[in-house]
Specification:
- By secondary structure, the protein is α+β, with helices and mostly antiparallel strands.
- It has twelve helices and nine strands.
- The strands form two sheets. Strands 1, 2, 3, 4, 5, 6 and 7 form a seven-stranded mixed β-sheet that branches.
- Strand 8 and strand 9 form a beta hairpin.
- The structure holds 3-thiaglutaryl-CoA and flavin-adenine dinucleotide.
- Flavin-adenine dinucleotide binds next to strand 1, strand 3, helix 11 and helix 12.
């Protein structure tokens, strides 16, 4: 496996163990069938609990039987999963960084006790509802609303008043979310909505069980990218949830955006894994495939491609390792994460295309991974903040001038 700068020589015992466990899992349980899943447009759902048993969901969190591993070990895990398929890393990102992290950071004790153990083992599946049909890069303009039911204040009938006083402790959610990873198979959706009962209608997080009346989760089944991953919408038609469903510890856009920082960190690592897999496939192919009387790897043009790919992957690895050190000591900024997500995913996009090219006609088939990775990376380039948006986040940080509008 490409580790040109010898970074893995410095890994500790725990880090090696996690890397090897994930690598073996991908090699034995994922690689044999992933191309078929990609063609069929399915995710191997039997792996959901297995990934939980192996501790792949939010292992960098503590308490509630979670492993509490270091940030570099967590990054290595994301790298190995995405070397299998971006859909696999997506499942771990959503469950761990986008659902368990906010419950852990902002949830009540009751919410933590109810959800963290079952999400950790994969018995329960979570999803993260931020994007809306009309609001993708600009989630702050979201239209989904949570209204407190105020019928207790208007009823004169004592029986109605009694029942309304229960309603008074409820929120009614209306709106729709789209492009939500795992929504069709989720037990719980973390829905971000504007709380119209509070001054300035701040964004709040609501833990909504998907079997509640008024919730629909239709699958989006015409994707040409990230096909081995389940994506859907979340429809919310006057969905009643108790006040206890609100995450009490956060209010405002920093709620969802702070979760994105966690997930983007994992993507910065994951993209390296996808690119590394493409590189290894291309290197092996080039040494075996013969044209003009010998292996194509002897041609300078092909060697230049391998040299550029290895250099791009190695510099992205360095960025990921540095991010881990900063995160571990609590110094990592969201803007540094944006730089790494933006750079490393663009790198994986370029590397997967070059690898596909080196495989000639065979490269467009499912017999080899680069075309699948290339198709997946189009999503990774777009979700968790597009390449453009991360450029603007960096531009804002570098100049002090926001250029979003
Ligand atoms: P802005 O005014 O800049 O900030 C509001 C508050 O949030 C804080 N903040 C952050 N905190 C932590 N991490 C970050 N990355 C943060 N960014 C901002 C900020 O300090 C402020 O705090 P406070 O205390 O002052 O209130 O917010 P804005 O609404 O103007 O945001 C601007 C922008 C464009 C950067 C943001 O909207 C953005 O990042 N847009 C991209 C949208 C996006 O990434 N969507 C992702 C949806 S989820 C997804 O794609 C999952 S894919 C899952 C998978 O399958 O792997
Ligand atoms: P738009 O915001 O409409 O952007 C369209 C184009 O305009 C892009 O090229 C963008 O870079 C550009 N653009 C936008 N604004 C600016 C600007 N200010 N300056 C310059 N250019 C700009 N969301 C969730 O909430 N949860 C999930 O689990 C989730 N999973 C996903 C899974 C998949 C497979 C996909 C494809 C998406 C997923 N998303 C999820 C949604 C994803 O986060 C959004 O697609 C992404 O944020 C971009 O939003 P958009 O698609 O509406 O594009």
């Amino acid at each position: 496996m490409l580790d040109y700068l010898g970074l893995e020589a410095d890994l500790g015992t725990e880090e090696r163990m996690i890397r090897d466990t994930a690598r073996e899992f991908v090699s034995e349980q994922v690689k044999p069938d992933i191309a078929d899943h990609f063609v069929e447009g399915t995710f191997p759902t039997d792996l959901l609990t297995e990934m939980g048993e192996l501790g792949f969901y939010a292992p960098n969190l503590s308490g509630y039987d979670l492993p509490d591993i270091g940030e570099r070990a967590y990054g290595l895990l994301m790298q190995e999963l995405e070397a299998g398929d971006s859909g696999l890393r997506s499942v771990a990102s959503v469950q761990g960084a986008l659902v368990m992290y906010p419950i852990h950071a902002y949830g009540s004790d009751a919410q933590k006790e109810r959800w963290l153990p079952s999400l950790g083992t994969g018995e329960a599946v979570g999803c993260f509802g931020l994007t809306e049909p009309e609001h993708g890069s600009d989630p702050s303009s979201m239209e989904t609303r949570a209204e407190r039911d105020s019928s207790e204040e208007t009823s004169a009938d004592p029986r109605e008043a009694a029942s309304a006083s229960r309603d008074g402790d409820e929120y009614v959610l209306s709106g729709s979310k789209t492009w939500i990873t795992n929504s069709p198979i989720a037990d719980v959706a973390l829905v971000w909505a504007r709380d119209t009962s509070a001054e300035d209608s701040p964004v709040r997080g609501f833990l909504v069980e998907t079997d509640r009346d008024g919730v629909t989760t239709d699958e989006i089944d015409d994707k040409l990218s990230m096909r081995a991953s389940i994506t859907g919408s979340i429809g919310l038609q006057n969905v009643r949830v108790p006040e206890e469903a609100v995450l009490p510890g956060v209010s405002g856009m920093k709620g969802p955006l702070s979760c994105l920082t966690q997930a983007r960190y994992g993507i910065a690592w994951g993209a390296v894994g996808a690119a590394r897999d493409c590189f290894e496939v291309a290197r092996e192919y080039a040494t075996e495939r013969k044209q003009f009387g010998g292996p194509i790897a002897r041609f300078q043009l092909q060697q230049e491609k391998l040299a550029t790919m290895a250099t791009r992957i190695s510099t992205a690895q360095l960025l990921a390792y540095r991010l881990a050190d900063l995160k571990e000591r609590g110094d990592l900024t969201p803007q540094q994460v944006s730089m790494a997500k933006r750079n490393n995913v663009a790198m994986a996009r370029e590397v997967s295309r070059t690898a596909r090219e080196m495989l000639g006609g065979n490269g467009i088939t499912t017999d080899y991974s680069p075309m699948r990775h290339l198709a997946n990376i189009e999503t990774v380039y777009t979700y968790e903040g597009t390449h453009d948006i991360h450029g603007l986040i960096l531009g804002h940080d570098l100049t002090g001038i926001p250029a979003f509008k």
